[in-house]
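Justification of resources, computational component.

The compute hours requested in this renewal are based largely on the per-chain cost of generating structure records like the one below. Each record pairs the submitted sequence with a full structure-token output. That output is archived, and it is also reused by downstream analysis tasks.
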Amino acid sequence: MNESKTADAEVANNEAVIHRLIACINDRHIEVMDELFDDDATMDWPQSHERVRGAQNRRAIYKSFPQLPTITPHRMTSAGNLVVAEATLDYAGPVYETVFIFEFARGRIMKETAYWSEEFAAPEWRAKWIETF
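The structure output for this chain reads:
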């Protein structure tokens, strides 16, 4: 297989891992995460200055979540060992627009960085320059 086909296969595999991650959270089968994340993976949440290091801590947090969100993916961009996913997280109350940055090694997630924000209304003063969607 030439380098281009190998790179394309790697990107497709990484994207499939992220689709499977979203499905396992939406289906409340968090045990599947062990197949997708490297045991030494980190999860960074810059807004709260938290880092989850390793499978044991990840498992404990996800088992303790008061309520897991329903994730609706909107867009995924990938290159090499990097996947960026934009999604909405709905906690049956608060809804967050989210950007996930996933870094891969050996076909598994090594690092996840997540940024999220609640929706807010666009200010009226910008109305003449923007489109809403």
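The mean pLDDT is 94. DSSP finds three helices and six strands in the chain.
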